[in-house]
């Protein structure tokens, strides 16, 4: 009789490994972030986000159809504008870059789920996610503008609005505004456990939304606190969020797992720009195998308990997985 516990039996072939894997990575889980910019007529490559572009709103159908052809079920739209002011007027303008892109994406690929990032930082002259008074990023005055933005995005055809500002009470305010505007079928994916992270660097560059003074620590969660992430998720579910999010993903896998254990709602994890850029940069230098590293990262996010992974790898990963 053998006294060796042979764990390697379950690792001995690709077939048995696939049978016993519990984190089946599939494009069904992916949402692709897309940047749409006003003032351009052709897509422009983004050096800090290799493989990604600023899209003119009228051309978003191209990327929407590509995502659809790879079985990626959703897009997350970010508007980028040079037309900034203190009221974030382009955030809720009927013909703002995001609004035009949302209707373009819906008409090009009606079956895709279109998520719209709902925030003000790309549209305010100071680059903060809220309405500013002096040096203070105000809470309650911001809610009205966010609600107005969400309504305009849902009117343009967004299936889900995705508030990423981290003001208190925004989910409830947005839910009420949508319902009052007869947009009861539009859902909310809340950036609930959103941490004050260094991983947003490339995004702030390409979305031109870095704060012009101070930082975002008075509204985004301190990296040291899991509890605040969990209470923020719980609060957002109470206020009517359909989907909750943990962001970034990889440095916060414990938050994803804890949320999975506690809450029976869909959980999204955002594999953010810095996480993507680190893989791309190291792989360009030949220091890691970019494909293996990306797939391992995505697998870990699913294994931690996420249902949805928002990732800049979506297009390439879907292609790798279908080989
Ligand atoms: C803006 C917003 C940010 C991201 C999504 N929405 C940046 C920030 O909060 O500073 C980050 C996404 C990424 O890094 O990929 N509210
Ligand atoms: Zn913001």
Describe it.
- The chain starts with 13 loop residues before the first helix and ends with a helix.
- The chain has helices at 14-20, 60-69, 89-92, 97-108, 140-156, 170-180, 201-206, 226-239, 253-262, 273-284, 290-304, 314-321; strands at 30-37, 44-45, 53-56, 74-80, 113-118, 132-133, 136-137, 160-163, 187-194, 243-247, 267-271, 308-311.
- Helix content is 39%, strand content 18%.
- The mean pLDDT is 97.
- Strands 1-4-5-8-9-10-11-12 form an eight-stranded parallel beta barrel, surrounded by nine helices. Strands 6-7 form a two-stranded antiparallel ribbon.
- It is of the alpha/beta class.
- Helix 4 (97-108) runs parallel beside helix 5.
- The protein has one domain: Aldolase class I (TIM Barrel, Alpha-Beta Barrel).
- Helix 9 links the parallel strand 10 (243-247) and strand 11.
- The structure holds ligand PBG and zinc ion.
- Residues 119, 121, 129, 164-165 line the site of zinc ion.
